[in-house]
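Query protein
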Amino acid sequence: MHNFDYARADSPGQAVSTHGNNRQAAYLAGGTTLLDLVKIDIMRPDQVVDINRLDLNEIETLGDGRTRIGALVTNTALARHDRIRSDYAVLSEALLSGATTQLRNKATTAGNVMQRVRCPYFRDGVSNCNKREPGSGCAAIGGHNRSVHAVLGTSEHCIATHPSDMCVAMAAIGATITVEGPEGRREIDFLDFHLLPKDTPEREHALQPGELITHVTLEAPLENSRSHYLKLRDRASYQFALASSGVIVRLDGDTIVEARVALGGVGTKPWRAFDAEAALKGQKATEATFQKAAETAFKNATPYAHNAFKIPLGQQAIVRNLTTLTA
């Protein structure tokens, strides 16, 4: 049994001051990742700061059309919120495609952003894993690397996929993450929050020690657009994506005026496919256009022994989603 101190915070400032710069401390909200990893001895916090009393569970429409989501808003509340369902359908669909109802009832917005990888070599506690033990190697590269391993954004040090469905939708929408820490408050662009593994896979996000996510603010919905989240997996019930796409598209007749494409299950972070978006803009909404854009999205993909199928599957996720949205 690994002992730890427990504290309950009543304000973000108190939470941050209690946590301090202690790299071994952890914030506790829904606990669906933290408690899971503590039980298998992958995370060993010496202090747990409970933030469930903080007033961070509101969803607000701002004057400029953006939507601000409190860090403690549950996945269920966010998915079922009227504004999210009407103006950000891709986000509602992504949330409802992930996990069980019980988990969605506990999991929070900030916790979902902070999800850790599902790579079995990371979670078994004994295999070589640069993310868990920097410099030890990556057992996944030469091991079984089919379902939760990436073909985009990988490095010689790590090939684990980011597991979140919600984050794929947010990458497509565009968002800002507000954090509060020992040095004050700051905002981080959502696309800059999750880090590529490169040669430091142990650094998964842009938070500094002690910083706490307080809000995620979505960009204003794209006017006259439609959106959809498509998740492809081994079975439809509660599986992580083999490949997924969050797509937002705006049409003028049969011409694509603007498109946003994000991918899940194939990247080491929620993956915004800017090259695919550029290939779609101004083009006719045809299968040939969709296929060309999908191929562009994966032009720099690196397949491994067991996951090369993710390249055509990821392309299908884009083509099928666009076909549905433009029908």
